[in-house]
Amino acid sequence: MMSYAISMARARMFIVQALAGCVLLGVPLVSSAATLAVSPASWSPTVGDSIAISIAVDTQGAGVHGVDIRSLRYNPAIFEVQDDDAVASGIQIAPGTAFGTTPINTVDPVNGVITISQITNGGMVFTGTAIIGTVHVKAKTAGAVSITFDFTPGSTIDSNVAQNGTDVLTSVMNGLYNVSGQQFSSPSFPSPSSSSSSSSSSVSSP
């Protein structure tokens, strides 16, 4: 029993020394838990309505160097993503400005796939919340449609938040939207004065 207590005391001492060494070497001690989310996460539009959907990151206090959205998926039969870059070929969403560079920004309107990556400039570290991109969509047809992140905890080949080469993304919040009804334009009728004028002008004197 005494030897067990001594072993535990030595183990605790070793951990304290290791943590102290990490502090001296500048190694982060806090386990990071970054999140990604779309906002708004729900919406009930009518066919023909448009909305801006933001892709947001919250580093939860961690200092990160980049964010990969690989990928964000939607149903192209219900949602139509609008192009936010008239100069570049193809369709792009509006990139955020918190990170310095956007090396990838593409939309596949056939398969409903959005891909965007952002990194900091010169190895700078970003901490806090930021908009990675904004997706402007138009509701095409009625139905339920989700916007979902490809995400597997610990994987670096899907959506991730990078900290020193490590994926610190731990959770995502997807969106669910219900498009209802057909949007009809209000019919236009001629005013009484224009109707009277049109009628009288159509009658000619013999």
Explain the overall architecture.
It is built from 2 helices and 14 strands, in the order αββββββββββββββα. The protein is an alpha+beta fold. Strands 2, 4, 7, 8, 10, 11, 12 and 14 form an 8-stranded mixed sheet that branches. Strands 1, 3, 5, 6, 9 and 13 form a 6-stranded mixed sheet that branches. A hairpin with a 4-residue loop joins strand 7 and strand 8. The radius of gyration is 27 Å and the shape is globular.
Write the SSE topology.
Elements: H1 2-25, E1 34-39, E2 42-43, E3 50-58, E4 66-73, E5 79-81, E6 94-95, E7 101-108, E8 113-119, E9 129-139, E10 143-149, E11 160-163, E12 166-167, E13 169-173, E14 175-179, H2 192-201
Parallel strand pairs: 1-13, 2-14
Antiparallel strand pairs: 1-3, 3-9, 4-8, 4-10, 4-11, 5-9, 6-9, 7-8, 10-14, 11-12
Rg on CA atoms, Å: 27 Å
Q: Which residues sit in consecutive blocks of at least 5 with pLDDT less than 50?
A: 1-30, 185-189, 191-206
What is the number of helical segments per DSSP (H or I, 4+ residues)?
A: 2
The secondary-structure element order is: HEEEEEEEEEEEEEEH
Cα separation of the termini? 125 Å
Tell me the overall shape.
globular
Mean pLDDT score? 80
> How would a textbook summarize the main sheet?
8 strands, mixed
Range of helix content: 10-25%
Q: How would you classify the helix and strand content by structural class?
A: alpha+beta
Structure summary, number of beta strands: 14
